[in-house]
Design a protein that fits this description.
By secondary structure, the chain is of the alpha/beta class. The protein is built from three helices and eight strands.
């Protein structure tokens, strides 16, 4: 009888331990940040969407309303950018127009910036900053979108 009780207790303790470990792992996984969607105020949704789709190879993930859009989400792979036209008198204000040290509006992590640079160069993109290793220890390049927002595509230097 004691052996049976011991085995049941042991089994119960193992199940509790597994449950605690699984719940802890779920908690840890829930606390990890996965991505961010910057939101840019733009002058004109069709022009902005066209730049991201035609030049950068993004896709339209959402646009509304269809007949006269003022909001869109564009993205490629695991990143997305929200675009919103507020009103004619509310203009985009990219960071670099506010201060020379604030050169970027978005940092987009890229596994191989050299390959993406060549893709964009073949599309005829004008680069705000060509591919290089910069003084911040990053390898990448910068592109200014239709409203002047500067996107850095790159990664830390190896």
């Amino acid at each position: 009888m004691n052996v049976l009780i011991f085995r049941l207790q042991w089994k119960l303790l193992n199940e509790i331990e597994i449950l605690v470990i699984n719940n802890f792992c779920n908690f840890v996984n829930m606390s990890n940040l996965k991505y961010i969607w910057p939101s840019f105020i733009v002058s004109n949704i069709p022009d902005s969407v066209s730049f991201y789709v035609d030049k950068l190879g993004f896709e339209v993930r959402h646009i509304a309303p269809e007949d006269d859009p003022f909001f869109a989400i564009v993205g490629r792979d695991d990143i997305s950018i929200m675009l919103k036209a507020i009103a004619p008198d509310i203009k985009p204000i990219p960071n670099n127009t506010r201060h020379e040290w604030a050169r970027l509006d978005a940092f987009i992590s890229v596994a191989d910036p050299d390959v993406l640079f060549e893709e964009y160069r073949s599309r005829g993109i004008t680069f705000h900053q060509p591919l290089r290793d910069d003084t911040d220890g990053l390898r990448g390049f910068e592109v200014a979108d239709a409203d002047g927002y500067v996107l850095f595509f790159g990664r830390p230097v190896d």
